[in-house]
Each structure stands twice: as structure tokens, then as C-alpha cells.
Amino acid sequence: MTDDTTPDRSRRAFVRAAVAAGASAALVGCLEDGTTLQAPAGVEAPSSLPDRQHAWNDALHEDRDGNVSPPEHHVFLGLSLSAEPDETARETVRTALREVEKAIAWGPDGVLFTLGYTPAYFDRFDAPLGDAVDLPEPEPILALTAESDVTVDTNDALLHLASDDGAAVLAVEQALFGDRDRLNGRSLSASLEGVFDRTARRTGFVGPGLPADRQDGLDGIPDGEPVPDEAPFFMGFRSGFRESQATEDRVTIREGPFAGGSTQHFETLELDLEVWYDESDHEQRVARLFSPAHAEREAVGEVGERLGTETGVASVADDVRDHARDEGVVGHAQKLARARDDGTPTLLRRDVNTTDDDVCGVHFVSLQREMSEFTRVREAMLGEEFGRYGLGPRQGNGILRYLRVRRWGSYLVPPRPRRALPRPDPDGEDSEADDAPKEKDGSGDG
Ligand code: HEM
Question: From the record, what ranges are coiled-coil (predicted)?
């Protein structure tokens, strides 16, 4: 049976609504009736977890072509410190996070998460972040004057929770903020409540069929349900092909006290898809997102199913000026393939769709070794050089015309042993002992 009344379908719809709204403890309690989240594999976890918080790819599933499939459900919690970041608070954060890892498996069937810190967080310490971390104050890069209403993340931290099971994301959020004292059958002794206040809550989702399911009645999308059924993103195409993503190694900081960490950009984009769907056809959409050559060769398919692990944009990157001059269009991916480093992508994109505030949008998340690498690529996206061919942000300059930046933030995602309220100079002479875990892994109820 596949009708909407099956328990699975109704549970999915219920969880989806709960993730978007944030759920009460009682509600998640209901969700868990008869449901057990995947637990870590025996005593090995969580000591076997990678040092890199951002090392998700090995745990994630792959699609039929061999591309990494992102988790379906996401919650991004903006956090502000409500306590001094001293050793007591640090120990609380450390314990709370490790208790989650002991209760639920690290992976899309359990939960994946990263905790990152803003430049504003580090500003409170006397010592500077060393040269090995490139994390300047965030400065939005804007294409349109309509984007004047941009919120810059000046709070302290961002917790990104992700899972294929929305109930897992919700249960972990509640566990971390003191709304429950047991998680997946284990009792909890610490929470982030008392150390952090939740100052922003944003949600996202990604995967074939999910945007089509949720397109109804949103701001920014025309009537008539234009998003193709199988599209994983609102703009109608697959993304995140293996060859156009940086590897986790490529985005990892190599030296200094935060070696094993990464930097993270978080940007919220509102989508204005009326013109995208109503005034351009499939061929024009392919030209703007991939390249005019892809459109001509019908290389993409309805939602990108003809592409395997690569888009082939690198091979048309050099034609971009000809396309600007002769076709009046340059592709978004074509333009950005030119910003690769010696042929290698520098950003690991983990963007997701959002319907926060009933507006159709994207939370664009990317990891890179240095924020300057992100800036370089994001500036390339402006495509200012194509102005000479008459391609301003409102013309065929990739997808700029359909995007409005609304939120912008930069974070350091420290390596796992240093993710709990790190000092900028954890190896400094007067620093506390390292953040190595103090309790034994796999022991009792923590
Ligand atoms: C709504 C917003 C966006 C959508 C729908 C979108 C969509 C896409 C698609 C479909 C591709 C080609 C498939 C792939 O290789 O993944 C792509 C590639 C890419 N996008 Fe975006 N993108 C968006 C925003 C951004 C932003 C804000 C950046 C930041 C600079 C960005 C950076 C890139 C990069 C670096 C590539 C890969 C280029 C290469 O192959 O080297 N995108 N994007």
C-alpha cells in the first residue's frame, strides 16, 4: 500500500512538520513510540569517530552514480553564549555532545552534526586565532541592491544537525537543550542549556521529491507546482556531483592547533522562481545553471539524470566569454568551474532547501580550508567581467537574478577534540589541558 494513510507516510509527514516547527518533548515522545534510533556500534563508538567533525562522507550513502547523498533533514541552531567559556562550561559542552554520540549512531540513519564558532566568539579572548586559521569578520558579497536586508551572524556558534530521520534531529535538539533526560534509551547527565541560548533556528531538507512535495503556497514560487517530481532542489536539478565537490581532505586545515578542522560558510538565499519557471523553458534553465553548451547538447536530462559523477562544465569553462558574447548567457556552474584551483574544486558544498517563514529558499553551506577560498569563488559567481557583454545580475549571468542574500555567516569548525568552547590559542602557555575526553567511551549511561 502506498496511499497517504499508511503509518509510514503519516509518520513522515508528521516528522516533517515537526522538524520545520520545532517540536515539544511530548510530541517527539509520541514519535518515538515503537521507534528506536540507530545506536552506535557497541563499545567502539564514539572513540572511533573521526577527529574531523566535518568528516561525514564516509558515513553517508551514495546515489546510484556514486555521488554522496546528503542527509534529508537539517536543523541549524544559532547559539549565543550565556555563560563564561571557562573549564566548567567547556566540560559541560564536551559531555553533552559525547552523550549524544554514545546514544545515537554517527550517520544518516542516526545523526551527524558539526559545532562551529564565529569570529565574534573568538573576539572575547585576548589571544588571537593563529595564522593557521583564516576566519575574517564576515562581509557579505552582494550582487543586487535589493539585497540590502542581510543579517550577518554575530552570535557565537552554529550547531548543524542532520539525519535522514527527522525524529533523530528533533530528539537530539531536545536532548542538547534539556527538554528530555533520556535519548534512545540512555539517560543524559549534561545539556547545552545554561551555556548557550538558542537565538536562531533554521531548517532544511534535500533529496529527490522533497522540494516538489513542499512547493505549494510558498513565497517565491509560482502556482502550478512547477518543481519536477524527482528534483532534489527547488531550482529543479541535481547538484553536488562528486567531481565538482572538494574532498574532505581538501577542505581540512592542515596546521596549527585547529588542524583537522575546517571553515564553514552559511548563507541563506531567498529564491525568486516566478521568472525561472514561468518565463524560461527547460533549455534556458539548463543554460543558466550549467552552460549553453549543455542546453544545446541536451546533456543534462530533466533533473540531471544524464550526468553521472561530473557535469562536464570544466570542459566548457574556456568558452564562457564566447557564450556571454554570442548567446547572452553564462552558466552558473560553468562560471564557477573557472574558480577551481588548478582543476580542483575548493568548496565542499552542503546546501539544502528551506521553507523557513514559508519562503522558498536555500541554506547554502560550504566547507573550505580557508575563508579566502570561499570569497574568491563567491566573487567569481558575481561574474562582473561579463558586464562588458551586457550581462548584469539581472541578465543571463548564471542564476544571480533568482537569488536574494538574506543571511551570511562564517565559522571555524574545530576538530572534534577541540569543539567544546575552544580558546583561540589552545596550545598557549597558559591554556587549560587539551580537550581530550575525560570519561571512558562506551561506558554506562554517562
Ligand atoms: C540557490 C542557489 C544555488 C543553486 C541552486 C546552485 C546550483 C548549482 C548546480 C546545479 C551546480 C552544478 C552541479 C554541481 O556540480 O553541483 C552548481 C555548481 C557549483 N556551485 Fe552552485 N548553486 C547555488 C548557489 C551557489 C553559491 C552561493 C555558491 C558559492 C560560491 C555556489 C558554488 C558552486 C560551485 C563552486 C559549483 C561547482 C563548480 C565546479 O564544477 O567547479 N553555488 N551549483
Answer: none
